[in-house]
Specification:
Blueprint: H1 3-24, E1 29-30, E2 41-42, E3 47-54, H2 59-72, E4 78-85, E5 91-95, E6 111-114, H3 116-126, H4 131-139
Parallel strand pairs: 3-4
Antiparallel strand pairs: 1-2, 4-5, 5-6
Helix pairs in contact: 1-3
Length: 140
């Protein structure tokens, strides 16, 4: 990976952290020392967040990224992939099982692609957070 490519990835991670903070009020941050199998963003309870920033995004890339996110998510975390192609807005891939009770369905066929705002709405509605975090959402 070239230095320019790494810098582009870091900028993308910082953008996602900022968006998450604005939408959820949580103190998410980039994982500075990343190893194979680590998520890119930490600080959103219950979520393993992978960030991808590319010039062009294909359907096969999204499937590969989803598989990667599922592998690296811990048992108590839900995977999601934030991605952005050049001259496009951020999109988020996550499992529809977040909106349904019952078993976790991690396969690609159960994925939803949404705006960051839609993902944040699901996070706010479906998960227990501290009173301080909920207060921050109400103020946003």
């Amino acid at each position: 990976m070239t230095r320019l490519s790494r810098e582009k990835g870091k900028r993308g991670e910082r953008e996602v952290v900022s968006i998450i903070h604005d939408l959820l009020g949580v103190n998410a941050s980039r994982r500075v020392r990343q190893h194979d199998g680590d998520s890119d963003v930490i600080g959103v309870p219950g979520w393993s967040i992978e960030v991808k920033r590319r010039a062009v995004v294909t359907e096969s890339m999204k499937r590969q990224w989803w598989d990667q996110a599922c592998v690296q998510a811990n048992d108590d975390e839900r995977p999601c992939v934030w991605y952005r192609a050049n001259r496009s807005g951020w999109r988020v891939i996550w499992s529809v099982s977040e909106c349904l009770s019952g078993s976790y369905w991690g396969g690609w066929e159960y994925c939803v692609e949404s705006s960051p705002e839609a993902w944040a709405a699901v996070v706010r509605e479906c998960y227990e957070f501290t009173a301080k975090e909920k207060e921050a959402w109400q103020e946003a």
